[in-house]
Design a protein that fits this description.
The protein has five helices and no strands. It is mainly alpha-helical.
Length: about 100
C-alpha cells in the first residue's frame, strides 16, 4: 500500500472515531435530558359515567363531543388560558 493510501485509511479511521464519539455524546446527552424531564401533570380523562362512552371511541371521534360540556357556555367550561381545545385527548390520556 502506498503512503497516500495509508494516509487515506488513517483519516478514515480518525473520522470514524470522531463520528462515533459525537454520536455517543449526543445519545448520552439525550438520555440525560429525558431523565430530567418533569413528570406528567396533565389530568387524565375522568373515569366516570359522563366520560365512560369516550373510553372506547377513536380519539378524533371522542374529541368531537368534548365541546358539548367544555365550551364557554357548557356545564364545565375550560379556563381562558387552556391550550388548543380541539386536541383534548392528546394531553388528557384515557388510561
Amino acid at each position: 500500500m502506498s503512503e497516500k493510501e495509508e494516509n487515506k485509511v488513517e483519516v478514515k479511521k480518525r473520522n470514524t472515531i470522531i463520528y462515533n464519539a459525537l454520536f455517543l455524546s449526543l445519545g448520552v446527552g439525550l438520555v440525560i435530558f429525558l431523565l430530567n424531564a418533569p413528570e406528567e401533570t396533565t389530568v387524565k380523562l375522568p373515569k366516570d359515567e359522563i366520560h365512560a362512552k369516550f373510553m372506547d371511541l377513536p380519539k378524533k371521534e371522542a374529541e368531537k363531543s368534548c365541546e358539548q360540556c367544555h365550551s364557554p357556555e357548557g356545564e364545565s367550561p375550560l379556563p381562558e388560558d387552556h391550550p388548543p381545545k380541539y386536541r383534548c385527548l392528546f394531553c388528557h390520556k384515557r388510561d
